[in-house]
Specification:
four-stranded antiparallel beta sheet; Immunoglobulin-like; mainly beta
């Protein structure tokens, strides 16, 4: 009887043990090293898009060196770095303390869906600015063509980069 009770108890424990979660290492990822970096600030870095699910992307931007206390505005734009400067989405700024910006993206500023598949066909670029306004806004620390525009030659000089147009909701 004790043996039968032990077997039933063991079977119940085994039956109740299920794997709750499993690490998903199959997430789609695209990494872009900044092809333009402002040599006056000795900046380098990368932007990494990771698919969270079918409707959301995580964008991690990492630049260095940066200074604690500063925040660097970061934008996703339509077109190539040296082309049209129309802004597609305002991203979270790069925090000077960490050198990182992280933004979850599901839609662009015009409410267009933006998922991993859309990223692959997107003709655009990312820019990281020195400051939020005044002359610092016009200083681009780093930029990279992404999606369909990736791999196209980036300008070597800041004067060849299109100045960003402020977001539509800014006056």
């Amino acid at each position: 009887m004790k043996t039968l009770s032990f077997i039933i108890f063991s079977l119940l424990i085994i039956a109740s043990c299920t794997k709750i979660s499993e690490s998903n290492n199959s997430a789609k990822t695209s990494m872009y090293a900044f092809s333009y970096t402002n040599q006056d600030y000795n900046i380098s870095g990368k932007a990494t898009f990771t698919e969270i699910d079918n409707n959301n992307l995580n964008l991690l931007i990492e630049v260095s060196p940066t200074a604690e206390g500063l925040f660097h505005p970061t934008h996703l734009h339509f077109g190539k770095i040296d082309g049209e400067g129309k802004m597609a989405l305002v991203l979270n700024p790069v925090d000077g303390k960490t050198g990182k910006s992280e933004t979850v993206i599901s839609k662009l500023g015009d409410d267009t869906l933006f998922n991993y598949d859309r990223l692959q066909s997107f003709d655009g670029h990312i820019k990281v600015h020195l400051g939020d306004d005044g002359p610092d806004y016009d200083i681009i620390l780093a930029a990279v063509n992404i999606g369909n525009a990736a791999g196209t030659t980036a300008p070597e000089q800041a004067g060849d980069i299109t100045v960003c147009q402020k977001p539509l909701n800014d006056d």
